[in-house]
Amino acid sequence: MEIPLEIISRDVRLPEAAETEIRGKAEKLGKAFSKIQNIRVVVEVPHRHQHKGNHYKVGIYVLVPGQELVVNREPGDEGLSEGLRPAYLTAFQSMQRKLHAYADKRRKV
Questions:
Q1: pTM
Q2: Sheet holding 5-10, edge to edge
Q3: What is the pLDDT of residues 63-93, one digit of tens each?
Q4: Which CATH architecture has domain 5-108?
């Protein structure tokens, strides 16, 4: 079963390669965690910097039975470097950890 995926970009045009990689990362989450019902990825540029380049905000929202898991990565978060790819890769890594914690908690119940 294919998990519904919604990719939203605000104030930024996503390169095709980035959108393809985001789809691949979302598909990988879906294969690892069969209980996922929906995934929404939001990419935006909250502030434009003329000299420092763009910083990206990435939110990943995953609907699982009983709750929605949320990860937000914003400019200025510790360890988050400038650039689109590092922003969404870091967000997907965080979501994967969150899903592991969710799955472990469900197994114990």
A1: 0.88
A2: 5-10, 38-44, 57-64, 67-73
A3: 999 899 999 988 766 555 568 898 999 999 9
A4: 2-Layer Sandwich (3.30)
40 near 6, Cβ under 8 Å?
Answer: yes
**Nearest-angstrom CA–CA distance, 52 and 29:** 32
* CB 52 within 8 Å of CB 82: yes
Q: Where are the domains of the chain?
A: 5-108
| Residue indicated by tokens 């950890």 | 97
**In angstroms, rounded to a whole number, what is the distance separating the alpha carbons of residues 21 and 96?**
15
**Cα torsion angle, 10, 15, 20, 26, sign:** negative
Q: Cα–Cα distance between 44 and 59 in angstroms, integer?
A: 9
